[in-house]
Specification:
Blueprint (H helix, E strand, L loop, with lengths): L1 E8 L4 E2 L4 E8 L6 E9 L20 E8 H7 L12 E8 L5 E8 L4 E3 L4
Parallel strand pairs: 1-7
Antiparallel strand pairs: 1-2, 3-4, 3-5, 5-6, 7-8
């Protein structure tokens, strides 16, 4: 239960260790809304939050969230030569939590030129 993420570097075929990630919760709705920072962290060697769940089961609430992944800095730190500006700088995944009693896993598969995501288990 709760909220988790996992990032895989599809260019190098490995977890995205060291990538900086930020989690925000949306306060309000649509144009009058703002994203409130919940936490920032760097992914561990497995491409996951080193503290485990981003939000535990008891604290997960219904609402809208954003995960922000610093893709350009991650690949630059890996020594990948990137154009200026890079095609992907930050990847923002906006998603909703409708069921507080379910687990929401939000993985990211990423390269300097593409990404995909899905609701995992």
């Amino acid at each position: 239960m709760g909220l988790s993420t996992h990032v895989l570097d599809t260019m190098n075929g490995c977890p995205a260790a060291g990538m900086q990630v930020a989690l925000y919760q949306l306060n309000g709705y649509m144009a009058a809304s703002e994203f409130i920072l919940v936490k920032k962290f760097n992914l561990n060697a497995d491409g996951r939050n080193p503290d485990g769940l981003l939000i535990d089961h008891q604290s997960l609430s219904k609402g809208r969230y954003r995960l922000e992944f610093d893709v350009a800095s991650y690949f630059a730190n890996k020594g990948v030569v990137l154009p200026d500006p890079n095609f992907l700088e930050m990847v923002h995944l906006d998603f909703g939590v409708a069921f507080e009693d379910q687990h929401y896993h939000v993985p990211l598969l990423v390269s300097p030129w593409s990404y995909s995501t899905y609701r995992g288990s």
